[in-house]
Design a protein that fits this description.
Shape: elongated
Helix content: under 10%
CATH topology of the largest domain: Immunoglobulin-like
Radius of gyration: 34 Å
Structural class: mainly beta
Number of strands: 29
CATH architecture of the largest domain: Sandwich
């Protein structure tokens, strides 16, 4: 056995055996690691943040760099010799500014930059920057009953609040969401058809700024039921039909789903098949029909405003 730090010969090759306590990464840069906090694209970051990253095993120290540009041509912060995996600057960062940051793990053998570098974040400003609303556009018509609201970013904000109301004074609010960090949202509340709504967005930090030009108004689309459509198969009066038939119909404009009903009674006082939520224009029910029996069938097109019955209806057929 060779002693620590000695050179051994193995099949004619020279193998360097590290002495006890030497780093296992001699001759190689430190292993990969990642940025942790602030999260990438985070807004509302304080001007004295705590930067954090995962450890790079074997690293002797770290260097953190912060800049106003992703190429790091200039530095707001360039601190080396950090032995921990977190750092808080002594001087305040500029408020209401998009900043980029990266961390380098260093050893005598080289350095490696944290994965995900550079990360970006926006510092908090006492007064959020001006911003505007995008959609639904002001005074727009025929707007969806589940619209997506969007707006531009307010530099230096911590969060946004969206309000939707039936009046311009916002006394009758139908939807409100605060604490948002994104610049768009689709409310879960379904709006009423043929109705005028007003909406506005506020950006909040130490103070509150409302979007330029707010409030905006829009009118939702008129309520419409699914359009007319026709049953196709089995055709009316057909005989020798399978006891497990496939039912087919044409498409109905505006339909979200379809509902099929099959009965031995043309008035559908009782049904043997009643299947709703069908997303396509054909279906093979799992119910096995009786042989040598006359059946009647009809299908409805369904959306949020109601349903439309296929015409002509009902059709009849006789099983094999």
């Amino acid at each position: 056995m060779t002693s620590p730090g000695r050179v051994a010969l193995f099949l004619g090759a020279t193998l360097l055996i590290p002495a006890c306590g030497d780093s296992p990464f001699i001759g190689a840069p430190p292993p990969a690691f990642e940025l942790s906090s602030p999260a990438n694209t985070q807004i509302g970051v304080p001007d004295l943040p705590v930067f954090q990253w995962t450890p790079s095993v074997g690293a002797a120290s770290y260097t953190i760099q912060v800049s106003t540009d992703s190429a790091f041509s200039t530095f707001i912060l360039n601190q080396s010799g950090i032995t921990a995996t977190s750092f808080s600057p002594a001087a305040e960062l500029p408020p209401g500014t998009v900043l980029f940051w990266r961390v380098l793990a260093e050893q005598a053998s080289g350095s490696v930059t944290a994965e995900g570098s550079p990360g970006s974040f926006t510092t908090l400003a006492p007064v959020p920057g001006d911003f505007g609303m995008i959609a639904p556009e002001n005074r727009s018509l025929e707007v969806s009953l589940s619209p997506t609201f969007s707006w531009t970013a307010s530099l230096g904000t911590a969060s946004y609040t969206l309000e939707v109301a039936l009046d311009s004074g916002f006394e009758t609010i139908v939807f409100e969401r605060s604490g948002m960090t994104e610049t768009s949202v689709t409310p879960t509340t379904v709006l009423l058809p043929s109705t005028v709504y007003f909406w506005k967005v506020s950006a909040e930090s130490v103070s509150v700024v409302t979007a330029t030009g707010a409030p905006w108004s829009f009118t939702t689309r008129t309520a419409t039921v699914p359009g007319p459509f026709q049953p196709v198969a089995p055709p009316n009066g057909m005989v020798l039909v399978s006891t497990l038939p496939t039912f087919v119909w044409t498409s109905s404009a505006g339909a979200l789903t379809y509902r099929l009903q099959v009965s031995t009674d043309p008035s559908f006082a009782s049904v043997v098949v009643d299947q709703a939520g069908i997303p396509t224009v054909s279906v093979t029910p799992s119910v096995l029909l009786s042989s040598l029996t006359i059946y009647y069938w009809r299908v409805f097109a369904v959306n949020g405003n109601g349903s439309t019955l296929a015409s002509p209806t009902p059709l009849s057929f006789e099983t094999d």
